[in-house]
Design a protein that fits this description.
Number of helices: 9
Shape: globular
Number of domains: 2
Oligomer: single chain
CATH topology of the largest domain: Glutathione S-transferase Yfyf (Class Pi), Chain A, domain 2
CATH class of the largest domain: Mainly Alpha
CATH architecture of the largest domain: Up-down Bundle
Helix content: 40-55%
Strand order of the largest sheet: 2-1-3-4
Distance between the termini: 39 Å
Amino acid sequence: MKLYMHPVSMTSRPVRLFMAEKGIEAEEEVVDLMTGAHYQEPYASLNPNKLVPMLEDDGFRLTESSAILKYLADKYDLPEYPKDLKQRARVNEIMDWFNSNFYREWGYGMCYPQLFPHLKRPDEAVQRATIEWGRDQSKKWLQLLNDHWIGPNNQYLTGNTITIADYFGVALVTLGELVRCDLTPYPNVTRWLGNMKKLKTWARVNEVFEGFKQHLKDQPFVAL
């Protein structure tokens, strides 16, 4: 089994963390996003999306982070993806929520246009409006995450048991650390993040991500 990834990628990080925590072994190949390797051969032909991660398992290729997490949990019969129909549906629901709602405006609205030149809008007024819109919408989604999905009693997203939804969600939420977002107004979110950062492999898997944060520490950003 082989995982094509980049250690800073928000969608590679949940897969790497889950695999590390569960002791799932795979060859890792870094696709250097910073030099555009995902647009170049041979990777561009292997994954026409030209994104990471991609899992290759005995000739079978899977290219979406959420799908890879589900595949691995099923392949190794892991409890983080429950077999109970309703419990599994709840995990699917919140993973879809992160992808369809939260990540769209948190990532591609507020954070990524500031972090990556190829996602910056060509007009300064449009750039400013995009970031401000993304910031305002992100506040709404974070409040929903805080009050509805986690709430005052849950330790994790679907209750008090960790699932693949937590692995997926935590990588997306911690994207905000790169632009120095302050999430203290969302105490249930910060408590959940603290629980996830206690995982035994968190520091090792996120070492490069932490280094990237330090690299950006003096750059000005619009943040919460």
